[in-house]
Amino acid sequence: MSILVAKHLKKYYGEGETLVKALDDVSLQVERGEFVSIIGTSGSGKSTLLHMLGGLDNPTSGKVIIDDKDISGLKGDKLCIFRRRKIGFIFQSFNLVPSISVYDNITLPIRLDGKKVDKAFVKNVIDTLGLENKLDTIPAKLSGGQQQRVAIARALASKPAIILADEPTGNLDSKTSLDVLGLLGTTGKKFNQTIVMITHNDEIAQMADRTIRIEDGHIV
Predict the structure, then answer these.
(1) Sequence ranges of the domains in the chain
(2) What does residue 218 show for φ and ψ, rounded to 5 degrees?
(3) CB 173 within 8 A of CB 180
(4) Which value, to the nearest 10 degrees, does the dihedral of the CA atoms of residues 18, 200, 46, 51 take?
(5) What stretches in the chain show pLDDT beneath 70?
(6) Distance (Å, rounded) from C-alpha 63 to C-alpha 41?
(7) Whole-number Å distance between alpha carbons of 161 and 32
(8) Are 90 and 165 in contact (CB under 8 A)?
(9) Which helix or strand (DSSP H or E) is residue 2 part of?
(10) What is the enclosing helix (H) or strand (E) of 22?
(11) How far apart, in Å, are the Cα atoms of 5 and each of 18, 105, 199?
(12) Which of 56, 69, 87, 102 has its CA 20 to 30 A from that of 162?
């Protein structure tokens, strides 16, 4: 069953001779529990696609359907609430809150949504990612690999329908990158999470169940 469907997505900038087609009629679907990588060179449109899929930007035309909900028409608070409840984001830059502990970073989206933290589930995620001895630590005292593990835990903790990872190992060395991606794959399977990851690295892309290649705004 498809949990994510994109239909004829287009994202155009400018007009006339300055028209840029960042995405040009892109359609895809991702099944529940699948780990998909989207690979392409710089400027290929992969980041634009991820932003469309996550509701971080609006397409010029086309639809994005997540968990049977068309998010294309959602605006303002409704879109923010949907993203917070249904989508977990993992960014290259970690995007952790520097002034609060690891545990508070992990549970922040849940608390922002006014929900009760499922402590047993969160503990399972924390233990799986090897963060049980770092919960009271602030992000600045962690290595890059540990910070990315916290970002993964945060994305998993709210039990989103889908996790979108934007070059999640871009700031990590090669060994740490493979470790983190291995853990992301493991946690995805363990907690039945659907993961869509963009990368420019073929070796990393091959760790996914399926790879989609994008060039010049088209799936190839």
Answers:
(1) 33-59+72-219
(2) -120, 150
(3) no
(4) -120
(5) none
(6) 24
(7) 8
(8) yes
(9) strand 2-13
(10) strand 20-31
(11) 30, 30, 20
(12) 102
